[in-house]
Predict the structure.
Amino acid sequence: MKGSQDTATLNGERAAATAQQAGIVLVGNPNVGKSVLFSKLTGKFVIISNYPGTTVEIARGETRLNGEAVAVIDTPGVNELASRTGDAQVTCDVLRDRPAATIVQVADAKNLRRALLLTLQLAELGRPQMLVLNMMDELDRCGGRIDIRKLSELLGIPVVPTVATAGTGIHLLQKNVAAARKASDFVAHAVVPSGDPGADYDRNVERLKRVNEIMGQCYTLDRPRHPTFAQKLGWWATDPLRGTLLLALALYFMFWFVGLVGAGTFVNFFEEVVFHRHISPWAIRAVDAVLPFPHQHAMEPSEYKLEIPFTPTRGIELMTSTRETLAPKYSLSAGATLSWWQQALRFIHDFLVGEYGAITMAFSYGFAIVLPIVATFFLVFSLLEDSGYLPRLAVMVNRLFRGMGLNGKAVLPMVLGLGCDTMATMTTRILETRKERVITTLLLALAVPCSAQLGVLMAMMARISYPAAAFWVLLMVGVAFAVGWLAARVHPGARSDFIMELPPMRLPQFGNIAIKTLARLEWYLTEVIPLFVLGTAILFFLDRLDLLAKMARVCEPLVKGWLGLPPETANAFLIGFLRRDYGAVYLLNAATGANPTLSAHQVLVAMVTITLFMPCIATMFMISRELGKRTALWITLFIFPFAFFVGGVVHRLQHVLGF
Amino acid sequence: MNKPPHHYHLCPLCGFEFERTETHCADGCPMGKFCNLIRCPNCQYEFPAEPRLLGWVRRLFCREPSKATQREMVGLHELEVGEQGELVCLSCEQHARRNALAVYGLVPGIRLVLQQKRPTFVLRVGETELALESDIAREIFVKRIPHEHAAATAGGVTPA
């Protein structure tokens, strides 16, 4: 690292000339709007949120400068170049690997002091650079003023004011990239270089002295007397009493929108009206027409109720309708014998629209049940992200998390895990120590159900009593804390200090929320639907080879003896290995379908067991990518027996609990 | 959290009182952890710890240490919510922790406002709101700035 920095210094002049070919690297403190600027420059979408650490991987794109295509790289935010966390390492590596690239530092104009500290560190690399002062509108609102010409003169580099979210100043930025150059000696030689890492602090103190000199000449602040409503809301969110109330309100809203509107109203509509009444019968008729063999499909009733829900049991009913529709179940015409050709047709027919058919089962699960739930969750989650509430949540739970060897920051991946555990596993990179990453990943895989699963579980909850539902919630939280506490003791290493910046509360922008929700949905669907089809195909072939029944018999001691569930539910756990929400949907059918086979108590046991399962095969791959194969193996080996163990214990406690 | 009744060290050179026993010492000292000198976070003067027995005798017969409010320099946790302070020093023994605070601008001479203490400390430095654990807050020493002197420069708007 050091060596390449030195060569970069030597080649500084030449680098400026070739900067346009080498591209530009966006660097800056966390949460200053690098990603917004990146997408404005390149027209490429990247996830943008109002909390530090959204970008954990670099993003590449292209922009046009003076008619020439130039590569742009977006990097995770860093507070300084001596890196401690993984994402700071990523940024340092990007800078090292591209010694000729122009550094475009993005700064939050409100936090000029911190930005200039980084400017000084970048200047010491001796490379062409420029400074973008972003969020000028917010600086204005809080009464700050920056003399940009003076600042540019002192630093010796171009300084461009922008409001990236509104697109203001982007052209000026593009025009000025070519003018990027090495910073003045005044900033580049503020401290004496030293290789001693222990001197980081002292050198930063020296740099900040220089920064204060600069700020004294070009920065004035005339703060308004009264705090804004957003500021007050931010303070309330971290207040012990008002913060708890606000949290309760946020949770209820989330439950109402995702659990009742998403998993209730929308799922009902898509499942009953769209799939059950239209797509499935249409697909069955179409397949029958193309692949004819003598058979008759049964008719089954389809009931649909449209209502606006308030609580799980109450709501305003708007309309109901009942009608008969074509079902996947069929019987062969009396006395018909099938030739080998017809047998083959029947096989394909069953694969597409049979009981375990790709269209009748996989697509209807994937699109009618999972999609509405995931969509509503990501919408709410994007709102929360952009408001700046999540870091304040970290402040509220920091004490609780200490017991699990974590600090409050771990709440960010945990909440994201309620959307998608695979995505959340990747986000654990914002945590500083390996111990924290391992524990958070374990808890995500064990006890945090993703939105698809959560929706299905909520639907199952309708079958059990309120005390049983409360028991399920408390058990999951209790298991998470107990396992976290144990893991914190068993796993070597230390937790990191809780030092976290709270971004300002902002009104979320509609456009960003819509784009972000859609992008996450696309990511989710391209991952989920293939897995659903694969899972259904496995079920189909097992059923065809008569292995499903045999496997159910093999698993009987475990499923029937230990968990006290009907042997057929073994299928659910089997398929739960692939995706636990798919397993849960299977259980849901057994619990609330046309002829339910599970009692209320059995539903509870099934819910507990399937919740503690590994989320999905994709999560497992992500864990082994992030933490290594060994850790992934250990986590998997722990989770499956543990899930069955807890499920069995709950079953044994039936008489004690009374539900 | 609940430390035994305040045991203050009194710097014999500058008279500064401070709480911590594991104060940060110079790097590369061959004594390492066997060194039992205490370093004053205010003037950096190093002196041997007062024997426990002597401390008892002193507290029995001598005047009480002055109240926290009268002392010029206090730990961040002793500041009232909404009060302003000027940072005097960080006593963290770990380089990494001191540096982690420095990159947010927390270096001697900076003005800050304590916004809340519970459930976690939140302070404001310039336009940055920073949440900290109480363990870290205890290692930050500040000089109180009386309200009448607290100009808008340090961040006039604070929660009620």
